[in-house]
Write a structure and sequence with these properties.
By secondary structure, this protein is of the alpha+beta class. The chain has three domains: 63 residues, no CATH class; 171 residues, ATP-grasp fold, B domain (D-amino Acid Aminotransferase, Chain A, domain 1); 64 residues, ATP-grasp fold, A domain (Dna Ligase, domain 1, 2-Layer Sandwich), CATH 3.30.1490.20. Helix content is 34%, strand content 18%. The chain is built from 14 helices and eleven strands. The strands form two sheets. Strands 9-8-7-6-5-10-11 form a seven-stranded antiparallel sheet. Strands 1-4-2-3 form a four-stranded antiparallel sheet, sandwiched between helices. It is globular. 39% of the residues are buried.
Length: 334
């Protein structure tokens, strides 16, 4: 990619703003940081947000080459995930239908439901979640109670107007995960790469809520912490989007490092099974909840994010996730 083409594709105003912010943190002149950002875009396919998030100014060339940047992540998605199947993952009712054996809960597509159907399931469940059928970052997620609904028709109309057209049974969380934080379902983000019929787990992280919102998303006020792929043991302190590290959950006091997550072999088997359902989408980030009866799928992401892997404060080696991916599918082969 030529320099002029690269620069044309950048939001220069935001890039300059990010360069100024990084320069204050790195104690270096802004022009030096800005030029280094452009260099990293050319040589490592790193956006300016990658540069800031992964502290590129602290990495040498060999370390930078191991970071799974946005550009390299996009190459994996484009090569391994058939666009014909993207809606299977993007549209939640389609996902819940296709992966029905693994979701473990009742749900209703409110876009096509009558007030009577809505009321019947709502009263059966007692508590239920509503959310957009194609939302991200936990936006639009609410927990509602049937005994507080006065007019089911009016509520259904409001939800449709807001785009909150997916209704789901509330997942009952395993006590070991509830102990960490009971204010949300704390899901595992497990990334798999399918090759020759086997799903290789390339990353596993626990996402934990830390706000008054009933979500655990990293981009929605939550925290992330790496989990050992073989054992299910949390490896270090948790981290939020602001870069703050937490040895213990600030509300419950539970220590993260060394905490054994439950039913780990069952979780890995679930991912192995789910990865076979749509074999033309080979690179998937699965969100898994753990109930007292076993793990269930919350959703699958055919465009796995790259922004939680190997973050500063959680990655003392400063080696990124790219070598793990390349050991299975080399980037040069795409």
């Amino acid at each position: 990619m030529g320099l002029w083409r690269l620069v044309r594709g950048m939001d220069l105003k935001r890039m300059r703003k990010t360069a100024r912010e990084v320069a204050r943190t790195a104690h270096r002149p802004t022009p030096v940081i800005f030029c280094d950002m452009v260099w990293c875009g050319l040589h490592y396919q790193a956006g300016y947000l990658d540069y800031s998030l992964f502290h590129f100014w602290e990495l040498n060339g060999a370390q930078r080459a191991t970071v799974l940047t946005r550009g390299k992540n996009n190459r994996y998605v484009a090569a391994l995930n058939s666009r014909k199947e993207w809606n299977t993952f993007d549209v939640k009712p389609e996902f819940l239908t296709r992966f029905a054996p693994y979701v473990g809960r009742k749900w209703l597509d409110l876009a096509n439901a009558s007030p009577e159907q809505f009321q019947a399931l709502g009263q059966e469940l007692g508590r239920f979640i509503v959310k957009p059928r194609d939302g991200t970052h936990g936006d639009g997620v609410e927990i509602l109670r049937a005994d507080q609904v006065e007019d089911w028709s009016a509520l259904l109309a409001r939800l449709k107007e807001n785009g909150q057209t997916l209704m789901e049974e509330v997942i009952l969380q395993h006590p070991d995960l509830n102990a960490i934080w009971p204010g949300s379902i704390n899901t595992l983000r497990i990334v798999s790469l399918l090759k020759d019929g086997k799903a290789h787990v390339v990353a596993s992280y626990l996402r934990v809520g830390n706000s008054d919102r009933p979500v655990d998303n990293f981009n929605g006020g939550g925290m992330v912490v790496p989990v050992d792929k073989q054992t299910g043991v949390i490896q270090c302190a948790a981290r939020d989007k602001a870069g703050d590290l937490y040895e213990r959950h600030p509300a419950t006091g539970v220590k993260f490092q060394g905490y054994q997550l439950p039913l780990w072999s069952d979780i890995l088997q679930l991912v192995q099974n789910a990865a076979q359902v749509v074999p033309t989408v080979r690179y998937v980030a699965w969100d898994v909840a753990v109930t007292p009866d076993g793990p269930v799928l919350v959703e699958g992401n055919q465009y796995p994010g790259h922004d939680i892997y190997g973050l500063p404060g959680q990655n003392p080696s400063k080696i990124g996730m790219l070598p793990t991916l390349e050991s299975i599918v080399p980037l040069s082969s795409l």
